[in-house]
Write a structure and sequence with these properties.
The structure holds 2 protein chains of 2 kinds.
Chain A: H1 2-13, E1 20-28, H2 36-48, E2 55-58, E3 63-66, H3 70-84, E4 88-96, H4 100-104, E5 111-112, H5 114-117, E6 119-126, H6 128-149, E7 156-160, E8 163-167, H7 171-185, E9 189-192, E10 199-204, H8 206-231, E11 237-241, E12 245-251, H9 256-263, E13 266-274, H10 280-286, E14 293-297, E15 303-313, E16 317-324, E17 330-336, H11 338-350, E18 355-370, E19 373-389, E20 397-400, H12 406-421, E21 425-433, H13 435-464, H14 466-488, E22 492-493, H15 495-524, H16 529-561, H17 565-596
Parallel strand pairs in A: 5-22
Antiparallel strand pairs in A: 1-3, 1-4, 2-3, 6-12, 6-21, 7-8, 8-10, 9-10, 11-12, 13-15, 13-18, 14-15, 16-17, 17-20, 18-19
Chain B: H1 17-37, E1 41-42, H2 44-47, E2 49-56, H3 62-71, E3 78-82, E4 84-92, H4 103-114, E5 118-126, H5 128-156, H6 159-182, E6 186-187, H7 189-219, H8 225-257, H9 259-290, H10 295-298, H11 301-304
Parallel strand pairs in B: 1-6
Antiparallel strand pairs in B: 2-4, 2-5, 3-4
Classes of the chains: A alpha+beta, B alpha+beta.
Amino acid sequence: MIAVILLVGVIYSVPNFFPSEPAVQLSPKLDQPIDPATMQRFEQALQAKGLTVRASENNGQQALFRFEDTDTQLKASEALKEAVGSQFVVALNLAPSTPGWLRALNANPMYLGLDLRGGVHFLMEVDMQAATDKAIDRYEDEFRDLLREQDIKYQGIAREGDSIVAKFNDAFARDTAENALRKSYGDSLQFSKPADGNSLQASISQATLVGIQKFAVQQNIITLRKRVNELGVAEPVIQQQGMNRIVVQLPGVQDTARAKEILGATATLEFRLVDEENDPFQAQQNGRPPIGSQLYKERNGNPILLKRKVMLTGDYITDASSGFDQNNRPAVHITLDGKGASRFAKVTGENVQKLMAVVFIETKIDSKEVDGQQVKTSKTTEEVINVARIQEQLSKRFQITGLDSPKESRDLALLLRAGALAAPLYIVEERTVGPSMGKENIEKGFNSNIWGFAAVVVFMLVYYRMFGLTASLALGINGFFLFALLSMLQATLTLPGLAGIALTLGMAIDANVLINERIREELRAGASPQVAINAGYDRAWGTILDSNLTTLIAGIALFLLGSGPIKGFAVVLCLGILTSMFSAVTVSRAIVNLIYGYKPRLQKISI
Amino acid sequence: MLEFFHFKKAIPFMRYGKTTTAISLATFLFSVWALFFYGLNLGVDFTGGTVMEVRYAQAAPLDTIRETIKATGYHEVAVQNFGSSQDVLIRVPLKEGVSSAQISEQIMGVLKSTTPDVSLSKVDFVGGQVGQELYENGGLALLLVAAGIIIYLAIRFEWRFAVSAAIANLHDVVIILGLFAFFQWQFDLTVLAGVLAILGYSVNESVVVFDRIRENIRTMRDETIPDIIDSAITTTMSRTIITHLSTQIMVTSMLWFGGEALHNFALALTIGIMFGIYSSVLVASPLLLLFGLKREHMIPKEEEKIEGMNADGSVV
């Protein structure tokens, strides 16, 4: 039983000791699997540059190419970016060189934290007041439109604090307006009538406010994800933290300035008519689009000609959601504000049955070093994200159909929202660790463990002799268990985590000391060796349990309240306590039994 | 058998109770004074601000660095060597109205313009709000750990044990904090983690002694409580020293090999381990006496029923 657990422990901890290899990782920007044909395209692109691949793999969602050295890796990444960069995210990565049979057992190494491999950690805060302000301004606009449409006369509509106040000439107009507004906004706004005459006050309900804020965070996460993809990061982490914060972790990213710029890019949308009279392929070939048109690329790489005149910009979009149309095909439902609706109604009315394209435009400030000087250039990327036929005159609410899958409609809805009204983000915490620093940290953490462990073993052997040996063996095995458990859970190893391992190893010996001291005591009291061993283990158990559980309490509190690196330390501390309780008692007992168990009339033990 | 600590007779620790309590009280008061007088030298984790670590190819020209940074408009910047003469630590405090996320880039820019062979090893920027939260969460964690331990010990032992252990451990924590304040060592998140680990670890110590006291109360029926405590401390003495020595070996290894990043963490642990030995033996146990621990408190319930009996043994 213990042998089996030991074997499992060794198997799952071993992957951590294989070196990692330079690799390039490719993942599609759109949700499409990587098939063998695509793999061939990648390989051809690499062969064209005369680069040799050491090994490649493809799990459908991700392709990985391993190389002999970092030099080849960098060249390969350039080659692949050039060839397929428009459709695939090309990222440098370090792939573990774990043998296949271990990987088949799901035995993978731990992730290394940013402090061990280098990279950036950002904590960003969404400006909630801005999100709320936008929503209130939008309601204000919509109120005016609605009252005008329904011919209800009002004196004025103005924002007062976090609510909107509409003033009317008489109580009758006010009541009609209230009824009309309630019908449209009853579930998201709260209406009240202030005592001072004929006015109506609308304020956002708590539930709606929470909804607005959730939406603002979600939207920012989506936009960030899209931008991080452009940075080419192998294992980015983008997560919500708390009510209004987003954690962005970019392992391996060195150029933080560039990362900040890309993350802080602004995006807009444009609706444009498709130039259907001219051939886009011809225009692409001779490089001269017809007058009044502009050449674009669709997401699949095909060229498309769009009219220069912009029908509508994304600033007018107030909401976009994915769903289905009457025929149950995937669709995106878009809501425009009042001004946008009237403008859009006019242009679409004139162009029914024509093709309309949605262009996603992103502007970012890129700084490059030219001749030792920092040169900032504003870079704009434009991408046609959707083309659809205008079926009828469109107004305030309309839908885009002609999408391939519900997934695509979801993506489009997200992009539309992302382009239109993301609330501003601020960086509230940044932690950057350079790559050499990461390597040094690993070395330091590792050395502390090794030397500390060696010293403890020597001390134990000198002091307890044979029982010191069993204690040391148990301690070593404990180390394996801890590594295995952390690897199985795919925990992220950080420098505080390494410190935690050292500390738990130091503390773990306590259990064996307790046992050994007890055995010595029993021997002194005149018990026979076998009885002493038994009594020693039995009596020490209660103490071991109590003392470890109190440390566990500290570990759990650290885990609950700690942030980032502290959490890593806490995880190691808690798991280390569990493994050490097991190994110190069970494993060391098994070893002791192995050594002394077969001698029924034991005269002397080495302790 | 190699033994360092084998005592034939119980050492009368409790007789020195007054002296040891006086010593503890003195160190404790000293720490509290240091905390108030000097205050903790909080790291950016808690105060907010920017800390950069940069590395030069040669020995770093500290004065030039100071001048260059001052020229860009950051005045309260601290520049110092860190670990070696090539490594420089730059601390920039939080400034109202300045987008702090840009500070590191700006400074790196000007440093590069004067000395090109400088590279950035590490940047920590923490916003004021985040720092405040980390500080509050740290305090909360400390309270939570103390409460958790008290509750656990109260259930497993008895409230007198729980409170004694908690006071003994908080005494350790205050001393760690006091020394960090006195020497103005930087107190950051990792040190806090160390302090909390010590809180859990040093309670181990008290638990081991308490366990023995409980056992002795049941087996040594004829002796007084101070004698029982003395015997418990004496018999666990050897284990206490050996365990702490092993842990300290590991921590020393961290101090030696762990570099700057783990230095203060290991330092906090070292102080914690030293005072952990002392406090569990010489603070927690006298407190038990002070709280009036009696044999009855630890005797199982069936004997407690006797309290309701009449002199003749019948229950009315």
